[in-house]
Automatic annotation (TrEMBL):
Transmembrane parts of this sequence: 14-37, 58-84, 90-115
UniProt superkingdom: Bacteria
Keywords: Membrane, Transmembrane, Transmembrane helix
Protein's organism: Candidatus Magasanikbacteria bacterium GW2011_GWC2_41_17
Presence of the UniProt keyword Membrane in the record: yes
Organism taxonomic ancestry: Bacteria, Candidatus Magasanikiibacteriota
Protein name: Uncharacterized protein
Length: 117
């Protein structure tokens, strides 16, 4: 059984629009974190209402959030590509979930910026 061509996968308008939206939100997250949070020795990375700040890290630890988003884009679209040939709806669902995940990461970035101002 042959592989489904990647160019046909990327010609699907829904797939390419989901990919574009996910990349746009991820780039927005990178830019927002780089602009909103100034480099400091200690940055708050996690906060709970019960314990307050419970995770402090460096500026490079903060950039793991958009890096995680980039890895999830690659992973989700790779899985979507493999499902697209036989289980098209599942592949499209994977593609549709990716921008939503990126929006959740962007909201987390807003919370981190608010916490570190």
């Amino acid at each position: 059984m042959g592989r489904f061509p990647v160019r046909l996968f990327l010609r699907d308008k829904f797939v390419i629009s989901s990919l574009g939206a996910a990349v746009f939100v991820n780039v927005a997250l990178w830019v927002y974190l780089l602009v909103a949070i100034k480099s400091a020795e200690n940055i708050f990375l996690h906060y709970t209402i019960h314990f307050g700040v419970d995770l402090v890290g460096t500026y490079s630890n903060l950039l793991m959030l958009p890096l995680l988003g980039l890895v999830l884009i690659l992973l989700n679209f790779t899985i979507a590509y493999f499902f697209y040939d036989n289980l098209k709806r599942l592949g499209l669902l994977m593609a549709a979930a990716t921008p939503l995940i990126q929006v959740f990461l962007l909201v987390e970035g807003f919370f981190l910026a608010f916490l570190n101002r």
